[in-house]
User: Fold this.
Amino acid sequence: MDNSTNIVKAVSLKHWTRLQCFGHRLHLAIKGSMRDQRIQRAMGVCKKSGQRFFLLMEKETRTSGHSRGAQAAKAQVDHRITHQVPNPHAVFTGALSGEEYVSVSYLKPVLHLFNEEVLKPVADDSELTKTIKASVINYLNEKYDNAATDDLLNIASLVDPRFKTHYIKDDKVEAVKSRAVAQMLDQCQRTLQATPAFPSTELGGGKGDDGAAASPAKLQKKTLGSFFKKSYTDSVATSDLTEQQAEAELNSYLQAPDADSETNPLAWWKINSATYPRVSLLAKRYLCIPATSSPSERAFSTGGNVVSGNRAALKPDTGFKARQTSLSGKKPVEV
Assistant:
């Protein structure tokens, strides 16, 4: 989520759980590690060396009219020295900034990977390298050590068939499972309250809202088997659920073989939602959360470029379709 003051205040007033943007946090962690005096001194020497080189270059090219090119090259080198040197984790930020796949359940595994492999000091590291690694990982661990955030990430990892409890601390597994069961019971209760006792059926032949005669509903021939057909998912969603049943379903899900690391968890749940219907409802609730604010920022940025001052007369539907086309580069999906 965005870290701007108004967003933080709004989330606080609504008593929502605030998940900080991982990309922004990783950027701040790396930026903070670069404040070491040894790094600042080295960057200063590089800038001065580059400035001297480009001063000589500018003197030689001034008479030939290429001074602007020298200035542009100097600015580019300065930018690379300042911004592109401390950029070893761009792959993680880019991978977690997508909007067409699940990303929130990756946070626990990525933090574990940082702690155990990527940022773990090794014998060949210099003192400066060890200091940088410690600064980055300590910052990230501190920001994601909040109890509410940790609970959210634990449940998100639990309902991802690729990870389950593998990246949850051993002393927290039972507490996370109990919390998941409680949320399954709460979700079932809400479903029961939202389901009408006597669903209305319309046979057709009446009048529509505009007073015009509605066309009669087309009668379809039923087979004998259709009278015995019953959706298992729908029946369990509208049936009473005990704590023992919820625990049994969750344990059955956790004991099932893990999905491959390249598996799309949404596709996995589409196939297995009938086997674990209550856990699938929990997965729908958590796996839709983005790990970074990039998708929403990308949508607002594209919308601002589409609906500009020169296109103030765009109809809402046209503007929406144009924005969808700009985001995906494809024909907008009819909604």
Remarks:
- Residues 80-86, 198-214, 330-335 have pLDDT under 50 and may be disordered.
- Residues 37-62 form the longest helix (26 residues).
- The radius of gyration is 28 Å.
- Residues 35-85 form one domain.
